[in-house]
Amino acid sequence: DQQVKQNSPSLSVQEGRISILNCDYTNSMFDYFLWYKKYPAEGPTFLISISSIKDKNEDGRFTVFLNKSAKHLSLHIVPSQPGDSAVYFCAASYQGGKLIFGQGTELSVKP
Amino acid sequence: KAGVTQTPRYLIKTRGQQVTLSCSPISGHRSVSWYQQTPGQGLQFLFEYFSETQRNKGNFPGRFSGRQFSNSRSEMNVSTLELGDSALYLCASSFDGTSPLHFGNGTRLTVT
User: Contact B23/B104 with Cβ under 8 angstroms?
Assistant: First the structure.
């Protein structure tokens, strides 16, 4: 049972444009959500997080939006840069428990 | 501060063998989690250790086991290897298991 789903395995965006990565979850008890970025041959690195009491969190070019009623999470990258090309994983947890990850979306930013 | 260190980086084993992977967490971190990454499956949670005790466990068979030592270093063991165990195994540490995880670069296991 995939509790966290990233339905788009890949996304291609032009440099300077907005990248929108989506994530859906099924467990309404999740209260903490995170995005990780992974380059080949490296481990995932933490990007940004959001608590379920918020609906938006910004950090520079990265903004995460949470729609609890739709059980939907999205990551916006503006403007997108070639160095953003990587695999992005969303993850969720409940009361500090284990992180459940999605399958990942491979973002390619074209110059 | 040194990051999470995993050894070895690459490993090739044959079916039926067993393997032990090692993870040294960031200094001061007491929680260590293990994940398996395979294409199309994302990161699947294996288990989490905190202060030498297994605190959480994922849905993997008993062939997958782990332990944590008093210095927070952790090992993961897989016995009777199967072809399907070929994957990238990632270790992650955090101070208490609730803060964002810091991942190592993983051990790439290939079972032939």
Answer: yes
Residue bearing tokens 């782990």: B66
Q: Which amino acid is located at A60 in the chain?
A: G
Q: For residue B56, list chain A residues with Cβ-Cβ distance below 8 A.
A: 97-98
Query: What whole-number distance in Å separates Cα of residue B92 and Cα of residue B98?
Result: 12
| Backbone phi, psi, residue B96, to 5° | -135, 5
Name the DSSP letter for residue B101: P
Q: Is the Cβ of B60 closer than 8 Å to some Cβ of chain A?
A: no
Give me the residue label for tokens 């967490």. Answer: B25
Q: Is B43 on the interface with A (CB under 8 A)?
A: yes
B3 φ/ψ angles, rounded to the nearest 5 degrees: -85, -165
Query: pLDDT tens digits, chain A, 111 residues: what are they?
Result: 679 999 999 999 999 999 999 999 999 999 999 999 999 889 999 999 999 999 999 999 999 999 999 999 999 999 999 999 999 999 999 887 889 999 999 999 999
Beta bridge pairs of residue A33: A50, A92
